Amino acid sequence: xxxxxxxxxxxxxxxxIAAAENGAHVTVFEKNTLPGRKLxxxxxxxxxxxxxxxIDRYPEQYFGNGKFLYRALHAFSPEEVERFFxxxxxxxxxxxxxxxxxxxxRASDILSALTERAEHLGVRMEGLEKALDxxxxxxxxVAGVVTEKGIREINACALCTGGETYPTTGSTxxxxxxxxxxxxxxxxxxxxxxxxxxxxxxxxxxxGVVLHNVRTxxxxxxxxxxxxxxxxxxxxxxxxxxxxxxxxxxxxxxxxEYAEGIRxxxxxxxxxxxTGVKDMMMRRIESNRNMKMIQIFREYxxxxxxxxxxxxxxxxxxxxxxxxxxxxxxxxxxxxxxxxYRVCRTPMFSTAxxxxxxxxxxxxxxxxxxxxxVEGLFFAGEVLDIDGESGGFNLQAAFSTGFLAGRSAAEFxxxxxxxxx
Length: 421
Ligand SMILES: Cc1cc2nc3c(=O)[nH]c(=O)nc-3n(C[C@H](O)[C@H](O)[C@H](O)COP(=O)(O)OP(=O)(O)OC[C@H]3O[C@@H](n4cnc5c(N)ncnc54)[C@H](O)[C@@H]3O)c2cc1C
Hints:
CATH class of the largest domain: Alpha Beta
Radius of gyration: 25 Å
Bound molecules: flavin-adenine dinucleotide
CATH architecture of the largest domain: 3-Layer(bba) Sandwich
Distance between the termini: 13 Å
CATH topology of the largest domain: FAD/NAD(P)-binding domain
Strand order of the largest sheet: 12-15-14-13-16-17
């Protein structure tokens, strides 16, 4: 008997380590052959493991649910995450906006540090062992994990099965099903941090082209429902990048709303008022009268994108500055401030990085991660109704909640052993 951990992602592995460090016999049940399949994909294989933002500002990064993380973040802070990996022989470096990566640029180093530490502590790793259910004793406490191979008796269990995105990695929403069966409320899952698909006839063929410093707005009819700023990346199917991915969680889930028109608008000159764009254009036109307009704009945007911009504005890309008519200048101006594309469907779980929704936080004690409904049941990671901005915040949440759930589960298991002795 001891602590069972369901799911060997970053939350489950950290929970296993913390439980074992606190004296528990730990078994991890993982449905895949090997642990951490999604972890290996993080940060394009480089793994943005945490963020150096001040811990006081962390809660703002989790869309209204960040306060729940306060105690977990203090139990195992971003600094402690860094110390853990550095001490495991994985040097880290800070990149833009506080993002922290392994110096080697390999997510596999992060996974190895976790699995080696778990192994060193005597954690049993059971691969190809999918958990189907959690069994309770007559008094209602956690008593066993029901897997495809049978029933494993345990005193406490941490459910760390992740969300529902990139299902080929093993995260298929199983934890929500199990938790619901045990009486927990599940906030419906939605894809978050996902690229947006654009209707094909509006999408330019510009895969790989990046626009910097863009303000994006999602419009439903005339109503703005979400905004972001940063880089935008054109893909084969639509738009991605830091200024697009976080918008996904705000999009409607009802397909019929897309028929009525959901648009994403790009403001390519966001730091300036309307008159500022006009003044910039007038100045550039006056001092470069013998240049083509498209050459003037080359200073700011990639050439391939400019052909598209001029086409969308309805202005010839061959026009010289000296010949630009007032109405064409206005058309270019408004395309710069509001280049818009129709989003064709709800973002997809298969391409989203994170799942919004999950086990309701109201039913979980934030100081221990224990269920308020089932004694001996703990939760950690993306199975919870927590999703963060990109920048290392989702892994940090997985590590902090994993650490706290593992430590608390070990304490619970020790207490229930003493009671039975
Ligand atoms: C492409 C991509 C890039 C990302 N990049 C970053 C990044 O750079 N930084 C960042 O902070 N976040 C990133 N994320 C998000 C981050 O990966 C997740 O938030 C994090 O992995 C969640 O950890 P978890 O342990 O809760 O769940 P998961 O990593 O999903 O792990 C859950 C584990 O549980 C197992 N499991 C599921 N059901 C069962 C079952 N019934 N029985 C047994 N085992 C089960 C799964 O097989 C899986 O191994 C990225 C996500 C994706 C998809």
